[in-house]
Known about the structure:
Blueprint: E1 35-39, E2 45-46, E3 49-54, E4 58-62, E5 65-71, E6 76-79, E7 90-98, E8 104-112, E9 126-134, E10 137-146, E11 149-154, E12 160-161, E13 166-172, E14 176-181, E15 184-190, E16 199-203, E17 214-223
Antiparallel strand pairs: 1-17, 2-3, 3-6, 4-5, 5-17, 6-16, 7-13, 7-17, 8-9, 8-16, 9-10, 10-11, 10-12, 13-14, 14-15
Amino acid sequence: DGMTLNRRAVLVAPLAFAPLAACASLPASVAQPGQTVWTFDRLSAIGGEVTHVEGAPRIIASPFGPAVQFDGVDDALFIADHPLAGAETFTFEAVFRPDGGAFEQRWLHLAEDEAVVAGRPLIGTRFLFEIRVYGDQWALDAFIKGPGYNQTLLFPDRLHPVGRWAHVAQTYDGTTYRAFVNGELQGEAAAAFKPQGPGRASVGCRMNRVNYFNGAIAEARFTKQYLTPDRFTGVQSA
């Protein structure tokens, strides 16, 4: 995240990690204990919260059932919920299809309502899922920011084809922040993460309505505990 790329250091993947043979998967409608599941099968409500719809996102068919498609121009959903508020460790998963387009796309933003947290400065405490597009390929950009931490996981040498469904995840185990695509570790960094307070979310763009997403989203899944890739429960891409 950040309004310009050079404000955050781009990390280089420290090691070549062996790909996982397979990841566990469950139907999108099944939530495990301690999880919140957002299924993008309608525009009117996501995760039990009424959505504020901007632009003209639309429902499409996907291999996992209905999904919401965003045009990369002005389509967005705003949701009055921060499903990872209070989590000390976490697993944040999503199933999406990036379709190329602009270089910087911020497609799932969780933000703490800092104004209601007494004594805390306004620093933009948040989680973000983003991508960077390189022609017909993309790299995942995961980001967390809060009091005492500001960490990007972006690895431009780990590229994936546009136009295909993918499962992505970011996790924190108490010491280490990690990012995954289709169960494969993209990279990691030490982080002094602290729980975030209640807030809200934007889907299809950054909260301040920039960096719109061109593609589709089928599911997001939020677990207030650390899961290893063999325990990821989001719908997996083929």
